[in-house]
Amino acid sequence: MTDTDGTAGLDRRLADALERLGHGMRALAQRTAREYALTPLQQQAVLALAQHPQTRHEVAALAAEFDVSTPTMSDAVAALERKGLVTRSPGTDGRRRLLSLTADGAEVAGGLSSWDDPLTGALAGIPEADRATTLHTLLRVIAGLHRTGVVNVTHTCTTCRFFGRDEHLDPAVPHHCHLLRMPLPLAGLRTDCPEHEPADAPAGRRKRTAGG
Q: Which of 49, 54, 85, 156 has the fewest CB atoms within 10 Å of its CB?
């Protein structure tokens, strides 16, 4: 790429910067995972179970969440069971096995929760308005990747059916959440909303209407 001053060059440099950030994130994840004798995937599973303890977690759902095959996630969960960090219980149909952390698993999750402190520390030095704009931009990129199938599972505002884009004139509060019935400031956009419903979800799978 020789167009270092044009749009194509800018897009390429942004992609390179995100790639380097991804390498750094993976290095941080591997470092903390090793401290607890876990693989990065096992660490992701523990943190997912800890962050949403009320969710009915299943192996297949976690596999989709982290874009790995169900057998790969099943192996990771089996290893966590052997370590005494995760337990399975029958689902409502008597066949599906629901996952939850044990007491030891919750303790490990507490230790793992600070794995990205170096990143959040670096972000803290950036003005809040810039951080909010960056969050907004990244969520739009994620939404674009989700539409093209590159990202399979996402719980962000920008991929939710309740998200109303650019419904307000205030550039700091441009969007609207039709579930909460309130404007959404850029700094308040969510990356992992428990009320998220995919924008393209069939009507029969939707939990509620915007007015319900």
A: 54
The answer to whether residue 96 sits within a structural domain is: yes
In Å, how far are 4, 68, 78, 127 from 97, measured between CA atoms? Answer: 52, 18, 12, 45
User: Is residue 100 within 8 Å of residue 90, measured between CB atoms?
Assistant: no
CATH number at residue 39: 1.10.10.10
212 found inside a domain: no
CA distances from 131 to 25, 64, 127, 134, 149 (A): 18, 29, 6, 5, 27
CA distance 146 to 14: 19
> Does residue 30 sit in the same domain as residue 96?
yes
d(CA 124, CA 87): 37
pLDDT higher than threshold 80 for residue 22:
yes
pTM above 0.90, yes or no: no
Domain that includes residue 20, residue range:
7-114
Mean pLDDT, the chain, as a whole number? 87
Q: Does one domain contain both 21 and 60?
A: yes
One-letter identity of residue 156 = T
